[in-house]
Structure formats: C-alpha cells, structure tokens
Amino acid sequence: MIIGDSLSTGHGTSPADAWPTLMENDPAFKQFRATVVNAAKDGSGYVSVGQDGSTFGSQVDTAVTDTTRLVLFFGSENDMGTAPGETEIAASQAFASAKARAPLADIVVVGPPSYTGMPEQERLDIRDQDQAAALRAGADFVDPINLGWIMNDAENLIGPDGDHPSKAGQQYLQAKMEALIEPLLHGSRPAEQPVPR
C-alpha cells in the first residue's frame, strides 16, 4: 500500500510512469506476487488536504485493510508551513491507524526529499516530525535528505516544473523504493535503512 502525494501519482508525467506502477510491472518484482495499491493523491500530506479531500490519514482509512502486508508512506513537503508539531501529531495518528487496520503489516516511512544539499529549514522540520512519529510508532524511517536522493542529478531526475519527477526520476524512485521493499518481502531489513526499528 502506497500512501503519498504527487511524487507518487505520476504528476508531471503520467500515472503509467509513476514509480508504484513501474514497480508493480517490474519483472523482478513480480516474483513476490505482490499487488501494489497506490492510494496517493496530489496535494496530500499528513496535514495538507489534497485531491478529493485526501490526507495521508484518510488514504490509510480508505485503503489499508487487514490483508495489507506493507504500508509505505512517502512525503510530504505539502505539510511545510503547518503549525509547529501539527504534522507529528497527524503522522502519529496515521501510523496508529495503519497498525490498527493491518496489524501484520510492515510500516515504512520515507520522509520528504530535497533536490539540493541546502534544504529549507521548514523541510527539515517536517522531516524531523515525520521521523519522531515513525520511531515512536515502531515504524522504519528512511531519510532521503540524509541519503542524498536526487540531489546529485536533479537536472535529469526532476521535470520542467522543478518539483515533480521526470520519467527518469520516476525510474530512480522505483529503484530506491524496491531496494527498501524487497528485503521486507524476503523477511529481512532494507539495505538503505539508516534508523533501526
């Protein structure tokens, strides 16, 4: 189950180019016989209300079930500008709802990426709130900022709008997300996991 914003919907390219779709259609991923459900909606965040009134919490409530085996949250910079601590509270609620709805599921929380090595303080604040909520929930947290995702090749990986992944960027995210997800499907830990569970 993918919970997210426009970085996961194919915005700027197409839904067919979105990294969750690419992942599900990847022959190497098909061995897991996993169905990828992409609940992401443009404009959403833990607090930010996006397309169709969606937040990360409402995506969980609508899409996660007791048969869900992995929930991956990705983002969201859309929460930049929210009141101090508000995102952490909303994230905690979303993670608790995911655990209640899918008690057997692994929960992976990927924070918002930055396209430069000098991210705004607001972006870092959202990252820190996401991380605090994830660790308190016992979820895995992955920090694209510390890991340097996209930064070294943003010119090619980000589209003309300067915000959303290009086709190459979606393929890049596909590879990153598969590296996180596949070890969990095998029953081991993600290779790029900087924060212990």
Overview of this protein structure:
- It is built from 8 helices and 4 strands, in the order E-H-H-H-E-H-E-H-E-H-H-H.
- With 197 residues, the protein is α/β, with parallel strands linked by helices.
- It has a 4-stranded parallel beta sheet, with helices on both faces.
- Strand 2, helix 4 and strand 3 form a beta-alpha-beta unit.
- The radius of gyration is 15 Å and the shape is globular.
Topology:
Blueprint (H helix, E strand, L loop, with lengths): L1 E3 L14 H7 L1 H4 L25 H8 L6 E5 L11 H16 L4 E5 L10 H17 L2 E3 L1 H4 L6 H4 L9 H20 L11
Parallel strand pairs: 1-2, 2-3, 3-4
Helix pairs in contact: 1-8, 3-4, 4-5
Short summary of the structure?
The protein is α/β, with parallel strands linked by helices and 197 residues long.
What portion of residues belong to β-strands?
A: 5-15%
* Spatial strand sequence of the major β-sheet: 1-2-3-4
Oligomer: single chain
Q: What distance separates the N and C termini?
A: 19 Å
The main sheet comes to: 4 strands, parallel
The number of helical segments is 8
Total strands: the figure is 4
Mean pLDDT, nearest integer? 93
Helix content: 40-55%
